[in-house]
Every structure is written in structure tokens, then in C-alpha cells.
Amino acid sequence: MTEPPVLLEVENLKVQFKLKRPAMFMPQPVVHAVDGVSFKIKRGSTLGLVGESGCGKSTSGLALLGLVKPHAGKIRFDGTDLRATSAHDMFPMRKRIQIIFQDPYSSLNPRQTAGEIVMEPLVIHQVGSVAEQRARVAELFSLVGLRQNQMELFPHQFSGGQRQRICIARALALNPEFIVCDEPVSALDVAIQAQILNLLCRLQDELDLTYLFISHDLAVIQHVCDEIAVMYLGTIVEQTTREKLFSQPRHPYTRALLSAVLQDGATQKIERIRLKGDIPNPIDKPPGCRFHTRCLHAQELCRQREPVLSEKSPGHWEACHFETTA
Q1: Helix-, strand-, coil-residue percentages of the chain, each rounded to 5
Q2: Could you report the per-residue pLDDT of 209-242, keeping only the tens digit for each?
Q3: Residue 66 CB neighbour total at 10 angstroms
Q4: DSSP letter string over 252-309?
Q5: Considering the entire predicted model, what is its pTM?
Q6: Which domains does the chain have, with CATH numbers?
């Protein structure tokens, strides 16, 4: 069977935010939100980005769409370098790349009806006549499990799960190829989460969609992703297939995350690992390995030299100086 082609390739992506100077002549603090992230996503597949809050997952996703400006790195979509693309040329490219935001409560305009919200991308890109646009909206409502008579309702008249369905319909309006799913179920009840995840999986199969799925929930990541990249303090510390990550976790941070999840499989073999402390300040990251301040296996080498993400076994990448598998 032929391998699907790579649709999105990210190389050494860096995003920095400059903060206000604490005093006039003091240096300006810089937050290294994303600090050298690289990955590839094959067409029709799903890559999951997982990690604690503040590790740079959402910033990475926003940078792909140009919603935050990268400081360095390359972003190639279907062979096109998005960072080198002008605003004029980027406009039609946005039909192919969309996003589902985390909070269905704040990402919808309360002054627009649900139908107007889903129709807006069609209006902006001048796709079809008004009648064709309304027909497309009705089709999208049916596709995501909403009724056509709900098109005239306002966001506050919907439940959280229904609002996220509206967000998904809006993202699908222009027939995109690639969608960034930025924690699309984290604000929903567990029962509703399952419905939305099943919907996203069904739509991927039916429409041949490619996802970057961002989440802090390993159970969600396991349900929807083909490959998983684990992020810590702006970098990827481990990346492999879903099966290998849950059955053969290598990095100490990944093992700590998995040990906290009550489920069958790999976590039954891993003793509960309790990390001490919080993620270090991204303004003043620690020298050497970024995880050494919380790692149970840290040695002097870890405090001095930062490990490089390398392929430790076929298809399994890890950034660690030592072998820590079970």
C-alpha cells in the first residue's frame, strides 16, 4: 500500500512574545512559547499535540494559520512555504486551512444567528450566490447533526455541544483539507465530548480531512490520533505512533503523563509517577534538559547539555540522554 504524501511540514518553528520592560533600562523579557518544534502530518491522518497547559501547543497551532507570527522556522503546506507567502496569496490558501477553537462560548459572535456564522466564510470568499450559500449552510447543518430550523437561532440558544457543532460547520464551509483542532472538546461535558470526537472522526473519513489535534487529555488523544507528539516547555520531547506511545513510552515526562491516566494497556505496567513542581518559566528556561528540574532520572549531564530529538528506534523519536523505557 502506497504511503500517503506529507501535507504539512513544520521545521524548527519558534514563536516568541516580548513583554513590557519591568524598568526603563532593564532588558525586555521574552517568552519562548514555541522553541524549535518540527513535525510532519501525512494527508488524511491526525497528529496529536499533547502536554501540560502553557507548553506551547495552542501557540504552535495558531502559528500555522498565521494567527500569531512565528519568530523563525518553516511551514510548508502541500509544498507551499506559508511564511514566504504574501497576504494577498495567503487569502485563497485559507480556504484549504481552517481551525476549530477551544471555547465554543467565546468563538461565536453573539450578534449573529447560527446560519450567519456558518455562512460568513462563504460571504468573505465570495463563494456562490446567496441562494447557493444558504443551501450550503443547510447542508453543513445536516452534516454536523443540527436541524435546519436552528439556522435562525442565536448562539446563546444552543448547548455547549451544539455550539461546537456550529464551529465545526463553520470550519467545513469552504471544503478545507487541513483543520487545526485546538482543544475542541475541553470545554464540554464528558458525554458530549464523545459525540464531538465521533463526529470529527466520521467527518475525517467522509471528507478526507487532515487534523492537527491539540489536547492536554491523553484519553482524547488516544481516541482520535494516528501519531502523537508530546510537548514540554516549547519543545517536542517524544513523537511516535499512537500504539507505540501507549505501549512503549520512552521519555520520563511521557511516562509520568501516562501513569496519571487510569486506563488499560501501558499505564497498568507503569508505576504511578508524581512530578514535583511546575513547568519552569518560559522567560528563563533552565540550562540543559528542560525537564531535568522535575525528572527522577536527572544527572549532571542533563543539567549541562540539552538533548536532541532523535530517532531512538524505528519511527520513535525522543529527546533524552538516557534509556528509560520499561
Answers
A1: 35, 25, 45
A2: 999 999 998 989 998 999 999 999 999 999 999 9
A3: 17
A4: HHHHHHHHTS--SSGGGTS------S-PPPTTSPPSS-TTTTT-TT--HHHHHSPPP-
A5: 0.91
A6: 6-96+176-318 (3.40.50.300), 104-175 (no CATH)
